[in-house]
Structure formats: C-alpha cells, structure tokens
Amino acid sequence: MTSKNTKGIDNTVTEEDWDLWEEEDDIIDDDEEEEETPDAIEEPDRKVPDKGKRKKKPGSNGMDPKAKKGMIWAVRVFVIIIVVILLFAPGFPFHDIRETTGINSLKNLMKPFLPFPEWTNVSVTLAYDVVVSGGRATEIEIHVATPFDIPFDPGPGKTRDYLIQDVQNVQFTPSSNMAINDWNTEKNVISGWVINNIRGEFRYEVTIDMTLHAYQWDIDEEDSGTLQEIPVEYVDRYCVNAWAVKDDDGTIEHYRYEPLDPVIKRTAEQLTSDEPTVLGKVKAIFEWMEDHFNYTSPEERQRDRLVYGDYPKWATGCLSDWYGDCDDQSLLMASLCRAVGIPAWLEIGYLYDPSPTNEDPTQKWGGHGWFSVLIPLKDSDDFVIANIDPVNHEFLFRDPYRFTDWVDDGTYMNVNGEDVYNLDYYYNYFSSSAPSGVVVDPSPSTISNSFERHGSIKVYTDRPLTDGNLPGTQQQFSSLPTPSPLLLAPLSLLFLAVPIRRAFLKRDQCSDGSEH
C-alpha cells in the first residue's frame, strides 16, 4: 500500500511498520492511553494507520510506560500507608487528628456491640413483707438504703448537663419513722421503720421514681496516667485489706477485699507487668476475668451458702473457686486492682432484667453489685471514677438499667457503740428481737411499676460476645463477627483496588472496539 503526501514524500507502509506499531501497542497500558478528541487535527506529516487504535510512542512523555505504571501503584500503596497511620498510629498528633476529624468512628466497623437506650424513666417499689407468728415480736427494724442523685463526670473543661441517676420521688408507705442516717454526704442514706410489740402479717413499701442515663467514660490508654499520678489519699483508703470476715470468737480469718494476700498480689502483678498505664492495667485484669470466670450456677449457689453464708465471698475464695456472682467477681477484681496500687471499691444497687420473656413485675428488678475504679489522666492532676461490671461485660460504661443505693466509702460506722464496716451495715437491712418461740420471717421483693426506654445507643466492645442468659445479670445477646478493624479498612482498599481497576480497563477496551 502506497500513498503520497503534499510534499511529494513517499509514505509507503510496509509489513515491518505494522509489526512495529503492534508491538508498541502491546506495551501501552490502557488506563494511561490518551483519548482521541473528535476535533483533533491530523498532523500533515504523519500517516496514522486505520487499525482501531492510535499509536503512542514509548518515551514520548519522557518515561517508559511500565515505569510510569509502577510509580502509580507506588503512590497508591503510599496513600494506603498514610491512611493506616492516620487511623491507628498512637500519640500526638495522630490522636488529636482522629478526634478532630471524627475518623475514630471507622474503628468500630464490624465491631460487636450491645444496644442500649440513652435513658430510661422508671418506677420501682421495694416491698418488705413481715410475718410474726407464735407470739409478739418485741422490736423489728427495717433499714432501707434509698438511691440518690449521681452527677456524671464530664471531664476537664466540659459542662454537666444531666444526672446519671436522677431521683425524683421517694415515697414510704407507711411513712418512715426511723431517724435518717446520712453516712456519706448524701450518698449512703439509711431510713426505714421501727416496729414495736407486733404480731401477724405486715407490708412496708418504698416507691422510687427515677430517670437513669447511660454513660460511657470516653478515655483510652493515650489519656491515662500512671500509678504515680494517683492521689495518695485514695491509695491510703482503697488499696488496703478491708471488710473483715471474723469467726465466732471475733478473730479475723479473711478480708473480702484482700489485695495484700500473696496469691492475689502475685496474680495482679503478673497480669499487669507489661502495662505502663493505669487504664492498661485495669483492662488487662478485666479481660483475664472475662476469660477465666463463670457466673455462679444454682448448684454452686447452694454450696456457697454453706461456706460463705449470705454474704459475698472473700476475694481468695472467689479466686480459688473460679466462679462467682456479681458482687463476688467485683470484689475479686477490685482486690486485684488494689494489689497493684489502683483504688477500687464496691457499688451496690438494683438491676433491671430487660429480657422480653420475663414479664413478671416482681422478677424484673434484682439486687446487683459492680465496682468503681479511679483512673488518673495523663500529665495532669485530674482523674475519673468509672464503673466496671465484670459479669455483664461492661467496661467504663454504666447502662440505664441500674440504680445505685450504696457506695463503699472505705469507712466504719459506729452502731450502738460498735465499729461496723459500712458494707456490713448495708447487708444487715433487717433486725428483730422476740421472745423464745416467736418466729419473725421477713420477705423482701421488688415490683416494677413502669419502665420507659428513650433513644438508642451502641456500646462497642473489643472482644467477641457469646450467647448468655445468666441469672441476676442482663447478659442476653448474640454472637457477632469480629474482624480486626486494624486490618479491615486498609486491606479492603488494597484487595478491592485490583478487581475494580480491571473492570474499568475491560469497559474501556470494549468501548473502543479493541475487545468484545
């Protein structure tokens, strides 16, 4: 095939020319190929063969196409690395960047979570049925620890705009005739009834109306201080053996908080030795207990009554049993925290059972125990006091299904001239005196009058969830997938990039008629 141009130059196209053009086309990457515009003006000195593709000279832009392709992929990998650093690198300035931009939320992709209301409006009645048979009781006392307002801890520079626990009304029926004892600045308040010279059946009630808020202490290990930053007055009060267990002769056999026990101390130190921050140490203990301790079964509860009576276990007993109920596990974990110098103490109240299968209003609320821990903030004098509930897998979170009526303040009370540890006084809610042959039978219960949920939040966890429906707890959820968020986002980008690129190339090839 021969052609002449306007200058009379012979532009004969040979088979060698065609082969050369086809070899050049084979090394051109389709996504880097220049698009031909409809209004392109043909250069007068160049004959472009009609082969369906436009020839592009290698090196025309100063770079070999293969080298350019490699550079493009290098840039893509570099961008992915930057994204990973921004998402997961510790310390300043990455933490502040994540907080400012909100990309911290990406870490929660595919994490397991528990759904909760934002807040609840509740009304509950604490009922005390007393039966006196065989004669008259000389005196009966019923002690009621009433709940109190609890402000949330907003942290430095933030304003409080609601109460975690907002008590709106407390009504005694019949009216309380016991002097009110305020043992801890409006936190541990005891009142109730004193009844003299009675027989027969009697009912006493306290109805409480409250608003309960969910609250999560939003701190991580980058925010947490070290043991040296914990205020000394809290260490002196809450890092010692406390709540003694005595035999009939008054000799101390155990403590329910036992941080100074050698086994407790050695266990705590082994669990936390690699964690530099207070929060890291607390979390290591919490996760170890999640992995190794079970909730008390009905059979185990019968056995525990013979060994421990109606009181919670001492910490070494729970450790040796490898199981315990709510206050048993809370006391053990608080003891482990205390053993390494972290203040922790028991908090007690009632927990609502949200199970839809439980419609009995007298079974909706049950006594419950959890604990509080002090966590200092990094490079400051500030600290937070946060809740942990081991049996319900709630770490630095307080759900709106519970209310508090007592907080262990680490002190003793003078009751009738005798020093009594404050938790002993709380657990002895009932006392009576009666002649021989007179039986006094108290029967406490709770009645759910109303329970209204408002709003919805998700509480994410770092660990897989398991099925459960444990007596005395709200552990009722299903297992969810838990791929690591550390790798999920960048790997997804990396693996999706290749098939997406190929799909676009195939589309472009089909559109220009080169492939079908």
Shape: elongated
Helix content: 25-40%
**Through-space gap between termini:** 29 Å
Count of DSSP strands:
20
* Low-confidence spans: 1-9, 27-44, 467-484
Strand percentage lies at 25-35%
User: How many helices in DSSP terms?
Assistant: 11
Output the structural class. Answer: alpha+beta
Main beta sheet strand tally, sense and closure: 7 strands, antiparallel
Keywords:
disordered N terminus, alpha+beta, 516 residues, seven-stranded antiparallel β-sheet, five-stranded antiparallel β-sheet, 30% strand, 11 helices
Structural topology:
Blueprint: H1 15-26, H2 65-88, H3 94-101, E1 113-116, E2 119-146, E3 150-151, E4 163-173, E5 181-182, E6 189-213, E7 215-216, H4 232-238, E8 242-246, E9 252-257, H5 262-272, H6 278-292, H7 298-308, H8 315-321, H9 326-339, E10 344-352, E11 365-376, E12 383-389, E13 394-395, E14 397-398, E15 402-407, E16 412-415, E17 418-421, H10 422-427, E18 430-433, E19 439-454, E20 457-460, H11 485-511
Antiparallel strand pairs: 1-20, 2-6, 2-18, 2-19, 3-4, 4-6, 5-6, 7-14, 8-9, 10-11, 10-15, 11-12, 12-13, 16-17
What does this structure look like?
- The protein contains 11 helices and 20 strands.
- The chain has 516 residues and is of the alpha+beta class.
- Helix 2 runs antiparallel to helix 11 and helix 6 runs antiparallel to helix 9.
- The strands form 6 sheets. Strands 2, 3, 4, 5, 6, 18 and 19 form a 7-stranded antiparallel β-sheet that branches. A 5-stranded antiparallel β-sheet has the order 13-12-11-10-15, with helices on one face.
- 28% of the residues lie in helices and 30% in strands.
